[in-house]
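We close this part of the discussion by returning to an individual protein. The amino acid sequence and the backbone structure tokens for this protein are reproduced below:
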Amino acid sequence: MRKQGHRSRAVVAVLTAALLGVAGCDAVGGDSAGPTPKAKASPKPTPAWDSSPASIAAVGDSITRGFDACGVLKDCPDVSWATGGSTQVDSLAVRLLGRAGAAERSWNFAVSGSRMADLPAQMAQAAARTPALVTVMVGANDACRDSTAAMTSVADFRAGFEDALGVLRKSAPKAQVYVASVPNLKRLWSEGRTNPLGKQVWKLGVCPSMLADADAVDAAATERRATVQERVEAYNAVLKEVCAEDRRCRYDGGAVYDYRFGTEQLSHWDWFHPSVNGQARLAEIAYRKVRSVS
């Protein structure tokens, strides 16, 4: 009996020590797994791009108004690449909505002469329609100033675009946005200067920062055009970066800037704005980008 009690007390002592040892490890965070950490919230998935939007609103400048495409110094929205009804262009709206649908469910709020600072007000008009897609093409007038010193700064350009998207998101949070890059103004100079009439029209004040003294190729003229071109490229970088921060925005990847506009794509009234043919090319680019699944 004494031996059995001795053994029992020994077993109890061993078990007690073991339990205390386990408790001690837990207390100092030893081998215990501890409390299960809370799972991190998964980021919200990026919404799928709708390649068949049911309505379209366009904002921007004279290019989207079809300026000088049909006549001298006047808008011609019927041939707008974004919303026009012309069979010669087959605008983005016509390609996506059909001709009847484009007439009923597309709106053009672009204004000739607009710069980025004007975009928030246009975007407010567009948002009021709660469109499925908003097209943006703006920036050429920010670079086309009386001098390079008068061009819109990159910081102001960025702020204006951010403000415009913010305005849209307040009233139309689910609207998709297609952003076209600013055209290559230096290429427009290179192509248009081959036409004597075009150069005469440019003297009336068409994009003087790039087009003034069209035949001059001295150091000062070359530097001036290079400065404008660098600013356009900076604007396009801003469009890309700001658009990338919006889950429902798609930049064209520089497609408009890269397009090699020839004289057939330029207005034969000012040799600078897109002709009807040029508007059709812009519509093709936009349709391809909007319809792309990625």
User: Anything to note?
Assistant: Strands lie at 56-60, 106-108, 133-137, 176-179, 249-251. Confidence is low (pLDDT under 50) at residues 1-34. The two ends are 84 Å apart (CA to CA).
